[in-house]
Structures are given as structure tokens and as C-alpha cells.
Amino acid sequence: MAQLGGQGQPILVLPEGTSRLLGRDAQRMNILAGKTLAETVRTTLGPKGMDKMLVDSLGDIVVTNDGVTILKEMDIEHPAAKMLVEVAKTQEDEVGDGTTTAVIIAGELLKKAEDLLDQDIHPTIVSMGYRQAAEKAQEILDSISIVADDKDTLIKVAMTAMTGKGTEKARQPLAELVVDAVKQVEENGEIDKDHIKIEKKDGAIVDDSKLVQGVIIDKERVHPGMPKKVENAKIALLNCAIEVKETEVDAEIRITDPSQMQAFIEQEEQMIKDMVDKIVDSGAQVLFGQKGIDDLAQHYLSKAGVMAVRRVKKSDIEKLSKATSAKVVTNIEDLTSEDLGEAGIVSEKRISGEEMIFVEDCKEPKAVTLLVRGSTEHIVDEIERAVEDAIGVVSATIEDKKVVAGGGAGEIEISKKLKEYADGISGREQLAVAAFAEALEIVPKTLAENAGLDSIDSLVDLRAAHETSPYMGLDVFEGEVRDMNKTGVIEPHRVKKQAIQSAAEAAEMILRIDDVIASSGAGKEPDMAGMEGMGGMPGGMPPMM
To answer: Which helix (H) or strand (E) holds 360?
Structure first.
């Protein structure tokens, strides 16, 4: 709004009801949002992190300490906070772990930036300093990473990712299952995580989880007369329906004689019988169809001793193809014995009160299934999230063949080297690089706080230990500083790299915003006051939701 030439008449530039925050007000509000979000997930970090209980509008409950799950379930509205949620989602998609680390580093970078802004340092200078520091941090990270991809290291990486996620008792066996699964689907050094299917069922203990060298389909046989178990099975995969097709145009058939009606029905039956004969003649003993199977076809298939499953998901059909080497056929007429796949055993089993089809003992399958068990629905959901994280980190380690020490060791070493680097920079960027170095210490500091240790003492001990070795981290179980490589607490190089890079970029982007214009939307008044009042956890949280 502006005044017109001294006449006192306002000119409306923006629509009525639009709210606007400028300069320091806008920066303060955005930084507050970022800090609050980081504070929310901060208590979940590390082996002794606490869980969050999230209840949605339908009353569904999620209990987790997985950073990205918490942020997704929170239904955040604040625009700056949403940018940090994107950081967590990107971290999850790219590497599968380190989401909480990325968000708390971003929050701490914003907090340190606020101190610099209060000293009248321009946001652009802070952003440039952060960018410089992030690039240097990557170089330091490369220098302290260790080359490793042996099975023992991979198991340690998986166990580190799963620590503190409700899988404590079964960490070792679960980690071994994950490593076996990832190594099984590896092709030419590349891993498609989609080829590892996670099937979860409650009603048993975590130790009952197992790796199936093949695929589990959450379906049952279409006809009770079909065999429940087929050994040395020949498998056909169909992407077409086994039923008489409807005509594409409206057709009218005039029947003047009952015998014609009978002939018409017999003709349809014959068409279906021919389809089934074609399947049986190919040598198929098990059939997985992506579409429907006619009741009559089910009868004929049952008589022929063929086990059939219908309406199997496309993704499952693709996994079956990878596991059994069967080709997906789109026309029954084209089905031959060469299109069939093989499996040692195909059987229908009852798991947790539901029938499931197990396709097992495949030769060199490039798709496998992890059957994850847990005593209750909420527990098995959390174990599934832990297993997904483990699959992500093991895949990253196999592909990059690089790991770094965990327990805050990497962050402390980067922080130490960045402080030395900052001393050689002239200009105000030096302050931003030093602030970046201090911000990284939030990771070991949080690990100590969540474990009930004194964070100041822990940081002092860590800094002293890093004068002799870059691999010294915080063992939260013993409450002392140890060599993380020897303790077996290691993380993929890619997780740390992505977390630091994403956090720095998000903080830069938020700092460069000096004007927030919020339109009123469809008849809604924008609550900029609510957006400003996001600080302080207990009272400040609701406006974000």
C-alpha cells in the first residue's frame, strides 16, 4: 500500500487480506520456524533417542523416532518449515537414513545465522560463508572416510542404522538378513531397492523375521481344488485376463431357437477351455495373472492341477519376473515353455490369520522378500522403517565403498578442520564459516543429551580426543569417548555428505528470503501472527500443524 502524491489516498498493490512481512521480521519468522522444527525431532536422534506418538484426524496412531516419518505425519503448513521437510524427504529418497541429522544441522545453522544477523552481517555474506564451508566440509569428509565393503562392515553399517528403532534385541540377525538381501539383488555394482520387497505381519517375535529367496504374494489360490504346494514349479506370468472379452462396440445377437442359445454358451466355454489348454500345454504348473480369471477357467485350471493367483499387482509381477526369470506374456496365444520361470517350491501358507503365496528357492533371484515380524501392528511398522533405513545404508555402502565413523566423530572432525580453515579467510565470511563449524557440533551434543550425559563434558572430551585420532566418537552406552571404527559404529559416507549438503542449501535458501507475502487464499485470513508465534515448543507448536 502507498500514498498517492500527498493527497492521502492509498493505492492497493496487493489484494485485500494479503499479509506481508519484510526484512528482519521475515527472516526472524523463518528462522524461528526452522529452529522449532529441528527442536521437534532433535530428541529422537541416536541410540537412546525418544519416540514420538502422532495421532491423525482419523485417530490412527503412529509411534516412531524416524525423522522423516514424524515430519510427514505432522501436516506442517508453515512455508519455511516445509522447506526443511523437503530436506528430510530428499535425504530419505537418496540414502534412506540421516533425516533427523539433516534437519537438526539445518536448524542449528539457522540459529547461528540469527546471531550473525544480529551483528549486522548481511544475509548474503552469511549464505556465501555457509556455501564455502559446505564445500570445504565435503573435502574434509572425503579425507576421513574409509574404503570398505566387506560383509562384516556392511552388517555394522546396518546395525548402526537400526540402533534405537525398536529392534535392539534382533539387530544382528535383522542386519544379516538385510545385507544378504541387498547383495542378492545387486547387479553390476548397482542396487535397485525396489527389488527387495518388505512384507510385514504381526503376531510373532522379531526373531521370526526371515529372508525368502523369491517373492511373497499377499494373495490366495483362486480355487480351493487347486494344489496348495507345487515343487520344482514352472511359472507363467500373464498380463491378460482369462475370460471371454466383451465386444468393443454394442452388439446384438438374435436367437430364434433354444439350440442356438446352447451353441452360443458352448462356444464361449470352448474359448475359455482353449485358453486353459494353451496354458497347460506350455507346461505351466503355477499361474500368476495381473487381471481376472473367469470362474469356468478356475474350474478347468483346478482340474488340470494348476495353481493360479489372480489380480496380482504389477510391481509384484515384475518382482516375480526378476526372481524366477519368467517372461511376462500379454497374450495367451504367445505363451510357450520358453516364457516360463522356475522356483524350487510354490506354496500357500497361513501367516497371522491370512493366506499368502510363497515363491521360494529360486535360482539366483534378482528380487527377494524380507518377511518382517513383530508382536503388534505398531511394533512391526517401526521395525519395517528400521529395515528400510538399513537397506538404504547398505546399498549406499556397496555402491560407494566408503564409510565414516559414527557417534558424532565425523561432525567433530569436520568442525575442527573448518575452524582451522576459517582462520585463513579474510572478510566477514570467516565468521559464517566459523558459525558453520560450531553448528556441526549439535550432532554429538544432541547424542550426549539424549543419552542423559553432560553435553559440555562430552564435547570437551571429544575435542581433546580428536587431537590424536579423527575416528573418536561418543559411545552413548558406556558414556565415554571411543574409537568408533573399533566399536563398530560406522555410517555410509553418502549419508553424511547428503545431510551436510542438504542442510547447508536449505539454510542458505531460508536466509536469503527477506519478504514473505501470504495471500488470503479462498476466503481464509492468513495467520501471519500465528506463523510468527511458532517458537517455544509447548505453546508454539500448534500453528505449524
So the answer is: strand 354-360
